[in-house]
Design goal:
This protein is mainly beta. It has one helix spanning 2-13, and strands at 107-116, 122-124, 126-134, 140-142, 145-148, 152-156, 164-166, 169-172, 185-189, 196-198, 201-204, 207-210, 214-217, 220-224, 237-242, 250-253, 256-259, 267-273, 281-286, 289-292, 295-299, 305-310, 313-314, 326-329, 339-341, 344-345.
Length: 357
Amino acid sequence: MAAVLSVTLATRSGAGDSTGGRCPVQALSCSPGQSDPADSTAPATPSAGAGDGARTAGMERTTPARHDAPGQDPAASGTAAPPGHCASFTACGFPDAHSTGPRLSMSPHRTGAMSIHQDGQVIRRWDITGSLDVYANDVTVIDSRITSDNWWGINLRSGYKGLRILHTAITAVPGKGPDNGGVDYAVSNMGTSSIEIGWCDVSVFGDALSMGQGDIHDNYVHDVTPFRNLGGEWQHTNAVISDGGGSGGLVIRHNTLLNPTPVDQGASGSVGLFADTGPVVNVTVEDNWLAGGAYALYGGGQGANGIKVTGNIFSTQYHPGSGGYGPVAAWNAGGSGNVWSDNHMSDGRPVTPGTTS
């Protein structure tokens, strides 16, 4: 039995294959210690029912346009900074343009507003001009790029589960969206099941990652773009937003979450936990680089319970207080199961929230 188990584990991890420690191209996740897959094959031909659009041989990997944030050293080496002080997110090992987004070459697909109805569908190595509206279970998007002019880049409809978005870039063209030129959600979870978003490069969208349940990890959210919505008002912007309600189960771990929106142009938060549709419950915000917004973190307010905020860096790269008005607001210190510990400014000062505001 032990021998069988050993062979099984080696096969699943890729440790026994011919890639010499590289993650297999077809793997949906890599084992610890494996390097990124080698880009030695053309993108796989999409399966039947996977949608229409132009299809060509694999392109050379390209990187979407990005802009270094104020204080960000593009030549940072990635070596650890002294304890209690972080010069930039790259220098302190947080996700950036080099550690997120597609790892492999892609083929172009002009999908338009594409709906997915096939359970278990895998979209791999697509360079999509359009958006994905998911009416299916266990859909995976991996090593792809989405350039959307819709309300969202990827949307999971209520009643469906198991969406995974990995090693993917999700962006839009400012001024081309349906909300008076703006675009609202890079990823939207309209249901009550958890989704996974990992190692993604996300930009432009106003409320970039929007959900009450999910596992958001190792992502780089940047260049959130302000816009006036159809009502003529500045749209509120957040790198991650939850509107409350439901049972929670949202984990936000080891991300770089930047919201450079000016406070007079709709800035809300880097992480915005708001009780708009019900109390905010069971959220973990751990080991993130947070910068920008009116406040960098909104903690859910009165009625928020089970909120754990630990080990985060509140960066001064946009404002001396991380957010325009300070690092944190709406923290319910007396909430059941709420934990605030080991959170610091990027210059090493501890961050201590006030009472609920």
